[in-house]
Amino acid sequence: MALNRKIAYIDLDKETIQLEPIPMEWRRKFVGGRGLDAYLLYTNTPGGCDPLGPDNVVVISAGLLGGTLASASSRTHIAAKSPLTNLFGSANMGGFFAPEMRWAGIDHFVIRGKADRPVYIYVHDGEIEFRDADSVWGAGVYDTQAIIRKELGDEETQTLCIGQAGENLVRFASVMTGRKDAGARTGMGAVLGSKNLKAIACRGTMAIEIHQPQEALEYNKKVIDQVISSKASQSMQRWGTNFIFGISNATGLIRTRNFQYNQLPNSEDLEAENLDKYAVGMDACFGCQVHCRYRYVINDGEYAGTYAHGPDNISQGAFGAEVGCRSMETVLVANHLVNDYGIDTLEIGSMIGWAMELYEKGILTDKDTGGMELEWGNTDAVIALIKQVAFREGLGDILAEGPLAAAERFGPDSMKYLIHVKGMSNLHTDERAIPSFALNVAVSSRGSDHLRGRPAIDLYNLEMEVLDRVYRSPDGYDGPLTNSFSEYEGKPRMVMWQELCYMAVESLGICKYHTVFLSPNHLAFKEFSRLIQLNTGMEFSEMDLWNCADRCCAIERLFNLREGMTRADDTLSDRYFDEPTRLGLPVARGKHIDRDKFNAMVSEYYRLHQWDDAGIPTPELLKRLAISDLWPSKKKLETVDG
Amino acid sequence: MDKKIMIVDPEKCTGCRTCELVCAVKHNGVSAPSLARIHIVKWDNENFYIPMYCRHCEDAPCMAVCPKTAIYRDEELDSVRVDHDLCIGCKMCVSACPFGAMGWDARRGRLFKCDLCHGDPQCVRFCDTKAVDYVKTSMLCCDRMREAAENYTGLIRRQAR
Hints:
The complex is a heterodimer of chains A (642) and B (161).
Chain A: E1 6-11, E2 16-21, H1 24-30, H2 33-44, E3 58-62, E4 76-81, E5 88-93, H3 97-103, E6 106-112, E7 119-124, E8 127-132, H4 141-152, E9 158-161, H5 164-167, E10 175-177, E11 181-183, H6 188-194, E12 197-203, E13 208-209, H7 213-228, H8 231-239, H9 243-251, E14 279-283, E15 293-297, E16 307-309, H10 313-321, H11 328-341, H12 345-360, H13 366-369, H14 379-390, H15 394-399, H16 403-410, H17 412-415, E17 420-421, E18 424-425, H18 435-443, H19 464-471, H20 491-508, H21 525-536, H22 542-562, H23 574-578, H24 595-609, H25 619-624, H26 634-641
Parallel strand pairs in A: 1-6, 7-12
Antiparallel strand pairs in A: 1-2, 3-4, 3-6, 4-5, 7-8, 9-10, 9-12, 10-11, 14-15, 15-16, 17-18
Helix pairs in contact in A: 1-2, 2-20, 2-22, 7-21, 10-11, 10-12, 11-14, 18-20, 20-22, 20-24, 21-22
Chain B: E1 4-8, H1 18-28, E2 30-31, E3 39-43, E4 48-52, H2 61-65, E5 71-74, E6 79-82, H3 92-96, E7 103-105, E8 110-112, H4 122-126, E9 132-136, H5 137-160
């Protein structure tokens, strides 16, 4: 059944493998996927370990419902201490790896140590072996997967791997599967690289029993119809997330030229509709009817004939708006390169935008860039920098160390222009007009990130009754909510609710686009509870699941606190507070985040989580969640410090 | 009576493999592509996703090779079916099928193949893009002709402008 998959504890130093069942108590407390990963990472890593050292553990998982009849149960989660933020590292990707991993008998890999030579791991129907990675070390993401399939003589093999960027320890290297599925954030690819682990290949024919197959089949149909009947899904089916770009640019909600403007005029070529001339079809992850990405072929230039997948809204920002490029062709080429080298598209786009502003301000000169003119809109420079980062050449070698380390090299003035939280760059949305979004990126457990708790539906100015329905359940919250995105009141609840919702969905291994993210009518706790019951037979009430999500969010918080994070890290770059937006519609123009109101939001957000005003989970909360043993009492901490 | 057949349009296939999932759940109560009667064959480095399944051949090699006449044509659905009471498990049909559509479930010691879900193929029901479809033969040509003719109308409209 769906509950008999194993945890594979792998030690690369000793080349040992140990398979353990997942105790039912862990399922009840941490569910699976990202939730159980948080617990496994917290308990298997020593505090303060070197993220690129052998003590760091990388945990890779499928969710509790991975590969089952829960629409889009395709997600793989990767966790380790992040070499980018030195905090909780976490990345999530779609594709076909997670279901294949479960068909091969494994739910979680817990990998420690460092292999003495490049290796990859091959898992087939419960058997695990180490294989030399000589044939793929140095290869890009596309080739690595093709070569491994050939080597194993099995075209159905699904592979998770790193590209050259991960091998070269680029601190924002991604873990990849397929042509575009990227576990890109927080540098998980560098952690694999540091372990000499190039890839994990899975192939399985072990059936996952469905608890109530016919009922699950009918309920899955209902769920799919619910999801694909929304406007958001229908737009995604047609244009992917690229449909978001036009409206957010027109309103003035995207950052351009790093953080100087909030709208990119004359950028029609970046609009989703222009993808059609490159498209050769749409592509979907396992079990998903939203199929939100393009399959495309680059028509002209050096990369003519290249077949790739994507891009998405993030790439339009990263290689378009943020760096002042106005050509879809640039976006398509850059998207292909970061996917093949295995680099976080968001991080590198933001860092190039930052470098361009530093060049404009004279903080970086031709001497630093090796003569490359880092002018806004210089496509050649964008492409060149992607390669330089992947192969650690010239300026790219400095950027590859991540924003904070690079800022140290560039001098204190460069910090002023860096848009980051906890050492991770922000995406291209401009949150100065949207306090809820600003709060989300400030408090996210993995550094600046919209996918941790963004209440995207706040943008829609929905009827209050819709917000009441979504945000007051399942725990009966009776505090304030507001439906104007310019407000500060009630937003901490929306962010906290989304955090728990996203934690739940990522513990189940379902795609976020199927939950309340871009539509208020998608799945949430009620539907999750039913999906778990029909697929696994486990009874989780809505509140059970809510409490699990709360518990796992608390563990991520504890991990960060153990690494030395404080309330001072839950903040935004000064420009959010000090520089009002210059462009856009009246709802977006002349806006900045009010420092006092922002601080009040953070306090309220902590209070809702039952964390104290310093952002530390209270003993009462830890007791209620039955994880008091994970956090030493104050007295013990003092002894350790003293 | 108007018969229906399964048709496939690889260009519409997004490669999601929902068809494989629902097929195995419908017939075996499990998630297991290895037991699915349909499979999306992919060339990931190019741009090909091809749904493969039993064609319910008119002159079916599986039927011809079966020594016990366990494989027969169901006139109502116009489908190729297996009578498991007659089947001796010799697997000749597995070798004979040119499409790989005859499967062998080793755990149950039983042949498996597409049975069109008794007229309501779940792969079709769940395929939102209709890359696999189950259509009346009388409508088949008209639909395809209209789709193909749209190329011409587009051209003529552009010229008219």
